[in-house]
Amino acid sequence: MSKKLNQMEKENNRRSFLKGCGLATIPLILPTVGLTATSLANASTVRSVSKEQAVNFIFDGLAFSPDEYLDKLIEITKQSTIEPDFYGQEGSIRLLEENFAKITGKEKAVYLPTGTMANQVAIKLLNGMNTKVIVPENSHIFRDEADAAQSVHSKRLVPIGKGEPYFSLNDLKDKINYTNESEVFKSGLGTVVIESPVRRADGVAVPVESIKEISAYCKQHGYKMHLDGARLHLAAAYTGVSISAYASYFDTVYISLYKYLNATGGAILCGDAKMIDQVAHQVKILGGTVYQNWSSSAMALHYLKGFKERWKKVRTVSDKLINALNKLEGIQIKSIKNGTNIYDLSLGKEVNLKTLAIYLYENHNIWLGRANDKGIVKFTINESILSRDIHTIIAAWEAGVQKARG
Ligand SMILES: Cc1ncc(COP(=O)(O)O)c(C=O)c1O
Description:
The chain has helices at residues 2-20, 37-43, 66-79, 91-104, 115-127, 140-143, 148-151, 169-182, 208-221, 232-239, 243-247, 273-276, 279-285, 294-304, 307-326, 353-364, 390-404; strands at residues 55-56, 108-112, 132-136, 156-160, 189-195, 224-228, 252-256, 267-271, 331-334, 342-347, 366-367, 376-380. By secondary structure, the protein is of the alpha/beta class. Its cofactor is pyridoxal 5'-phosphate.
């Protein structure tokens, strides 16, 4: 009986893996977007096939299952008792906020239930009575926040840099001139937004020199600046520019708690005290004041500690891995210009992706994502590669490629 159940569970895992990793018939992901909402929902049902932690090349983070998440929380609270928060006050939330204020070099930090809310509240408060906010055309704020700025906060988002991973100072000047010269009934521009790393551009980090120029110009002209830094730690890990150096160019900075800090959700917004002190009221108005969030804040706090050192290791180990994989015939992994943790993986015609992915999953609990319409797999590096000896991961790939070859 238990053997049968075991077999059924294995089969379920296999099916959800196939769905989640796009090796079945669900629509292909967009090349520059990463996983779509639908495929992401499928992917989050992927389960480890063994007790050994999965090594995943799909997500920014560890992609814990509920069981693994609970185990981790127990481990964390055994090390140091998790203190509960109360409507966003005290407990592990306070510790998290203090840590983020320190890391970003800002006066204060505040917890919000989502990054979407952090972005929207930030631009609303920064903008004051001004109506216009300049945003990257490919940004989460412009493309993925359900027109919240227009429909909830009466702000008009003006997109810039269409088709580019990020915009330049000249693009910004042109856009400002265009709106100044072409609009008869003028309304003010209050805020300029930058997103970095850019989710819709495979995690490209906006060069700090470009941010610096734009920031100086905005300061000179009285425009506020907001950074959607959902994955800002990844930018820091790959460019060597510190979080506080990035943050110094902005009035407010949002950082995600779940992209790579492994919480189930949540966001932090940092800025000066005058600004951050207004946020809790805005969150309440929007219905976002949650009774307790310690399960997210304690997890994020845990992974925040030692992040820099761990990612130094991740980089060394992943360089080794990529080097070794590139020596296998039929495998090519290339970095992306100004990229962070996402690489382009392409397979020679003789290597079958589906066979390789299934082999890696079933035999080694290694997860590989689907190919886009150009045949490229967005090969994503995260901390999960530290959970095993790198030589065992390389050996698994060697065997997998051998099996997947024609
Ligand atoms: C760049 C960026 N900003 C903001 C968000 C929104 O975060 P949340 O899902 O917490 O609303 C995301 C989420 O995917 C994102 O990738």
